Structures are given as structure tokens and as C-alpha cells.
Amino acid sequence: MVLFTKLLLAHLIGDFLLQPNRWVIHKEANKEKSKYLYAHVLLHFVLIMLLVWDLSYWKIALIIMVSHYLIDLLKLYITPKFRLKSIPFFVDQVLHIAVLYCCVYYGNLMEHTVALFQNLDWALVTAIVFVSSPAAIIMGKLLEAMSDKIELDHKSLPNAGKYIGIIERLFVLMFIIMGRWEAIGLLIGAKSVFRFNDLKESNNRKLTEYILIGTLLSFGLAVITGIIYVSV
After folding, report:
1. Given a cut of 60, is residue 202 above it in pLDDT?
2. Please, where are the H alpha helices in 156-204?
3. Separation between Cα atoms, residue 142 and residue 173, nearest integer Å
4. What pTM was estimated for this model as a whole?
5. Mean pLDDT across 43-64
6. Are 107 and 145 members of one domain?
7. Binning pLDDT at 50, 70 and 90, where does residue 105 land?
8. Of 75, 101, 118, which marks where a domain is finished?
9. d(CA 206, CA 152)
10. Is 226:177 a contact under the CB 8 Å cutoff?
């Protein structure tokens, strides 16, 4: 686990802290002809050796460097084909981390992976999944009759309310698991402050009531989920 943590740290430093934006732009424009692509993967090799501080791991560092080159090169070619650039970015990061995982546990990769899944807190996983999209869909169904009577604000970001609700429910669930109930009150207060000016300017009683019901319902679902998880 210590080795994986060091490799992950080297990856984070190399991919985010020590990769200037001009390197990224140059790589996107020149692909395999970019000198910064080779500087980038070489930097990863150096970082791994520095953090591990053991020459016997040079083969692992070399494998990671070569795989990093191939994955980054693939991303450079497929990224223009995607409308959402975040998709190849996250796929790229998952592949890099998967390589690190395989390099660390190559001796018993299957056994370790099976044990990892067996030891997962499946009740927590279920709770997290529930307070995300399923809870959002349930809220949509419960508020469906009311939402038809509310004038839509076309200046809002697409699905912004949905994602705000998911994030706030995840925070509430985390606070309950940590036993920090007072933090939930602070979260409600912070959301009320941000919403106050919008509701004041709109002067729309129906919208105010709709947002209030939606907020209480969202927090309520998260609280119930948290209580059930803690009680199990």
C-alpha cells in the first residue's frame, strides 16, 4: 500500500503540479512530435525513482513511463473526437492509476483485487449511490406536480439544481457518518444565504416554496439514508 501511495503521489505531481499549460497545448498541437510529451513521461520516471528511493524499482518506473507515454499519446489522438473533453481526461486518469495498481500488485493481482472487492463496505456504497441519481429521480417524481407550476429560469445552467442536490446529499451523508450533525445546519445556512438574493429578486412565492420543499426533501432523504447506514 505504501508503494502504491508513493506511485500515486508521483503521478499527481507529474500530471498536475509539474505540467504547465503550455506543455499541454504543445502536446495537443504536435502529438508524438512534441518535445514536452517526452519531457513529461521522463519527469514521471524521475519522480517515481525519487519518491521510492530504491534503484531496484527501476523496471517498474520504466514500465510506468512507457505506459504513460502510450496512454497520453492515445488521449491526444482521441480527444478531438469527443464533444466533452472531460471524458478522455478521466479515462486517461483511470488507465494511469490502473497501471500503477497492476505494477504494485502484479504478483497476486487477481487475489488482491478479489479481496479488495470483498472487503468493501457495500452498505456505504449503496448509501452513496442512493443519495446521488436515484434520490434525484425520486425527488423529481415527488415534485413533478409542483414543478409544472413554476416558470423555468432559462439563465440557469443545465441540470445545475440536480448536481447541487447530489453534492449536498453526499455532504450530509458524510457528516452523519462522521457524527457531525452541526455541520448539516451550517450547510443549510450556507445554501440559504446563496439562495436569498435570487429569491428576493424574483419575488416569486411559488418558486420560494418550491425551493424550500425541494431542499428539505433533499436533506431529509440524505438524513434518513445516513441514519439507516449508521444503524445497520
Report:
1. no
2. 160-178, 181-202
3. 21
4. 0.85
5. 97
6. no
7. very high
8. 118
9. 12
10. yes
| Alpha carbon distances (Å) from 85 to 53, 67, 88, 127, 184 | 36, 21, 6, 30, 34
The dihedral formed by the CA atoms of 34, 101, 6 and 68, expressed in degrees to the nearest 10? 0
Report how far apart, in Å, the C-alpha atoms of 221 and of each of 6, 76, 156, 178, 204 are. 38, 42, 24, 17, 26
What ranges in the chain are assigned the alpha helix state H?
2-12, 21-30, 35-52, 58-78, 86-104, 109-118, 122-130, 133-142, 144-147, 160-178, 181-202, 205-231
226 and 159 in one domain?
Answer: yes
- Number of CB atoms found within 10 A of residue 154's CB: 5
User: Of 50 and 205, which is predicted with more confidence?
Assistant: 50
CA 108/CA 31 separation, integer angstroms:
36
Residue at which a domain ends, from 102, 118, 134: 118
Grid coordinates of 193: 444565504
Domain match, 110 and 11 both = yes
Q: For residue 102, what is the enclosing H or E element?
A: helix 86-104
pLDDT above 70: percentage of residues in the chain: 91
Domain that holds residue 188: 122-231
Q: Could you tell me the CA-to-CA distances from 2 to 8, 46, 63, 142 in Å, in that order?
A: 10, 18, 19, 47
Average pLDDT score over residue span 1-17? 97
